[in-house]
Amino acid sequence: MSSASWHARIVCGGEVGAGFLVSERHVLTCAHVVRGSGRAAVTVSFPHRGDLGEVSAAVGAHGGWDGAGADPGDLAVLELARPVPVRPAEFAAPDDAYAEPRPRLLVYGFPKGYPEGTIAEYRATAAQLIADEWVQLEAWSAHGQPLAPGFSGAAVTLADSNRVVGMVSAAARASTGVRNGRMLPTSVMARYWAPLGDLIPTPGHHRAAKERLRELVERAAGSGPAVDPERLYNDAVGPFGPPVPHGGFGSLWSAAWYVLSEVEEPEALTRLADRLTGLLDPPRPTAPSGAPPDWSPILVEIDHSGAGDDQLLVEVSAYREGHRHPVGSDTLASGSVRTYVQERVDDAFSHLTPGTDELLAFVLPRALLNWPVAEWSCGADDPTPLGCSYPVVVTERSRRKGGLRHQLTRKWEHLDGRPAASLHRVECGTQEKPNKLRFRLRRDGADLAGFGAPPPADRTGAGADMTHFDVSLTAPVPVLLWPRTGCDGADGHGPADAGCPGSEFLDRIAAHVDGTSPAELPRTILALRESAEAADEPERHWARDVQLLWDDPRCFPDAPAAHRHSPVA
Fold first, then answer.
1. For burial by CB atoms within 10 Å, which of 265, 314, 367, 502 has the most?
2. Parallel, antiparallel, or unpaired for β 295-304 and 357-364?
3. What's the pLDDT score for residue 86?
4. Of 36, 44, 45, whose CA–CA distance to 13 is shortest?
5. Which of the four pLDDT bands, split at 50, 70 and 90, describes residue 376?
6. For residues 20 and 28, is the Cβ–Cβ distance under 8 A?
7. Do residues 362 and 330 lie in contact, with contact meaning Cβ atoms separated by under 8 Å?
8. Mean confidence (pLDDT) of the chain
9. Beta partners for residue 93, in sequence order
10. CA distance 148 to 555
11. Which of 10, 4, 38 is nearest to 26 (CA)?
């Protein structure tokens, strides 16, 4: 049987075009070839298999072309009335059409006077897409069959292998004397029909990974949660991946296929699939409803001692079965705090209940909330950052006493019945007044607020105005997230301006925390910190500097730890 038997001739009313078989029941052609399908029958025949006769067909999928000239999405998928015993076309890798020297491309079409078909020889002018949709074709030689009506929908194949690299969608008018045309490359065609992605080779990606991604996309498009294709794409490719194409993505599959076909980093596909899995199958809370999370906290309390500007009081304690055990306390110069904490945290582990989940919590004054405590090494002999070995969180001292603590306890009890939270964004450079933010956070019952910029560094002056960060601390919002470094809005840009690292941080962190149980967020941030540390360039990873303020008062009963000596002595 001829290897070209999959070439098809399409008739729809007075329109004649070409197509090609991709499964026993599906033929691809241009949408404009079958634009009259609502009024006229569509028939498909196979010139190399005359014994099959004409097969009725219906338009099963459509790329969105609306008939107004050179519009995108000029693709139609025809469903045959019966399966045909013809081996479908095979596809080449998308880039094979642009190898050097440029390969000869063959096109099998049905111009007027050639009902049996004829062949034209062309090549791709360049790999550059025109309007992010088409590749320009130019004649292989000055003679031979030019593209003409009847070639629309024809497969463009490599002459040496007969594998498909695209489909003819347009040709120059004969009156111009120009012998060129346009090809819809397979990498673009797959944006409009997801099953095609399984057939097109994508070097660097395993077939199983591709199939998993397509199944996830189909689930999300069916009854899954609403998703933002651009946000998911940006989270998958990272800050140095290809930008979102002009016009964005028309569908989730379009974004997924762009990762498959345009992004060279294989891990981007895994990140996208994992994020979709999390959205479709969110983890259940580990703690029973109405019960505090099963954490075994080690508490590191740091405060100004009153013995000098550089002197800090440091207390380390451990909780076991709800009881607080003091491990050590001392007044130290700020430069000595890290070493002291490393030593005492090691001692504190002996007080934890075996088999429970450890949590390292730093209680800090507001001026020190941005300290890089998660980046402190585990010890003199272990350079691993604390935040990559244990869940590390911070909280602010004032939230552990009085009416604020009572409100937080009530909020956390409310969260027990809500296994997932969503991020309330506070953009870098926001023009919203702090008192309006307070109203919005209280009105919306915000559980989790994310900031595009770190808290202001100097908050010690008397009479200082309340900031957005201060408001979120006292609203109170149970959980806060922010990048310790990066944009601070000082350049005068507006919220969510293009290129703002703060907005990019919020986009990326939302993809990981939306839909996550608040009780599980310390583990979620631990995983992100581990990913950042394992990256090729850890210092440039977006999650390296993430700071998590998390304090469930039920994890830290009020029983005080006795000082071993006067902190000011």
1. 502
2. parallel
3. 94
4. 36
5. very high
6. yes
7. no
8. 84
9. none
10. 75
11. 10
CA-based nearest residue to 79, from 2, 16, 19? 19
Nearest to 500 by CA among 538, 456, 455, 452: 452
Residue recorded with tokens 């999959």: 6
Determine the Cα–Cα distance for residues 388 and 375; give it in Å rounded to an integer: 8
Compute the average pLDDT of residues 301-325. 86
Instruction: Specify the DSSP class assigned to residue 539.
Output: G
476: preceding bond cis by omega (within 30 degrees): yes
pLDDT band at 562; cut points 50, 70, 90: very low
pLDDT at 467 over 80: yes
Q: What is the pLDDT of residue 441?
A: 83
pLDDT for the residue numbered 567: 42
- Confidence at residue 291, expressed as pLDDT on a 0 to 100 scale: 46
Bridge partners, residue 134, by sequence: 130
What counts of helices (H) and strands (E) characterise the chain? 13, 23
% helix / strand / coil in the chain, to the nearest 5?
Answer: 30, 25, 45
Closest CA to 196 of 257, 255, 251: 257
C-alpha dihedral over 471, 476, 479, 482, to 10 degrees? 0
Strand order in the sheet with 392-396: 323-333, 311-320, 295-304, 357-364, 392-396, 546-550, 479-483, 448-451, 423-426
The 3-class SS string of 155-171 reads EEEECCCCCEEEEEEEE
